[in-house]
Amino acid sequence: MTLHVLTEQDTVLNKFISEIRDRRIQQDSMRFRRNMERIGEITAYEISKTLHYRPLVVETPLGEATVPVIDDQLVIATILRAGLPFHQGFLNYFDDAQNAFVSAYRKSTKDGKFKVKVEYISCGSLEGKTLLLVDPMLATGSSLVLTYNALCEKGGIPACTHVAAVIASEQGVDYAMKHMPRQTTIWTAVVDEELTSRSYIVPGIGDAGDLAYGEKI
Fold first, then answer.
1. What distance in Å separates the CA atoms of residue 107 and residue 113, rounded to the nearest whole number?
2. Which of 21, 25, 34, 185 places its Cα 20 to 30 Å from the Cα of 72?
3. What's the CA gap between 80 and 184, in Å, rounded?
4. Of 161, 157, 178, 172, whose CA–CA distance to 204 is shortest?
5. pLDDT for residue 80
6. Quick check: 20 and 166 in contact, CB under 8 A?
């Protein structure tokens, strides 16, 4: 299993990360969504470098040209609702990919902790395909693993999986690397060190779903 941290090299990605972290700029939900989408596009581009390609001959007005095009069958999966802007960034680049959606939520327990419950899955076949599991926050990693297992139960086992996050915690990365299949690659813009008692990443960004779509009851 491989981990790629995209901000290890300084690029324009830093601008979008700084803006989604900035509590003043976060007040503009449209800008927040657009920045999450941009980060998705950049991550999709980096992942595209690792995919399989086949030659495609196309006819131009003056002749023929051979262009390598993606040969993988891609499925982009995300968790509602926070993952939607990030997911859109991937779909902008992999515009012929299939898509899967998972509805999951945290359910509080009597001891003050929580369990993740998967409520709904919309998914086609994953068998032998390349799964891109995209979720902006990789906190504890338990939601990720639970979602992956639920998708596989519904759609079959993918040939390989790319996990993409905007911000991950060290704990979440460690958990994913221990519990996801060996043919998994993790991509994240940045890795933060700390988790709060409620499993929010510090310094993180706060609640990505609330920032994108408004506070929930």
1. 8
2. 34
3. 22
4. 172
5. 86
6. yes
What mean pLDDT is predicted for residues 135-154? 92
Task: Quickly tell me which residue has 């927040």 as its tokens.
Answer: 32
Closest residue by Cα to residue 31 from 85, 75, 73: 85
DSSP β-ladder status, 184-192 and 194-195: unpaired
Q: Could you tell me the end-to-end alpha-carbon distance of the chain, in angstroms, rounded to an integer?
A: 38
Q: How far apart are CA 26 and CA 146, in angstroms?
A: 29
Residue bearing tokens 């911000």: 167
Chain Cα centroid distance, residue 189: 10
Residue ranges of E strands in the chain: 2-5, 53-60, 63-70, 74-80, 98-108, 114-122, 130-134, 137-138, 160-169, 184-192, 194-195, 201-202
d(CA 134, CA 185): 12
**Residues 6 or more apart in contact with residue 167 via CB below 8 angstroms:** 136, 137, 138, 188, 189, 190, 191, 192, 201, 204, 205
The CA–CA distances, whole Å, from 143 to 107, 118, 135, 217 equal: 12, 9, 10, 21
Q: Express each pLDDT in 95-114 by its tens digit.
A: 999 999 998 766 665 655 55
Q: What is the pLDDT of residue 124?
A: 92
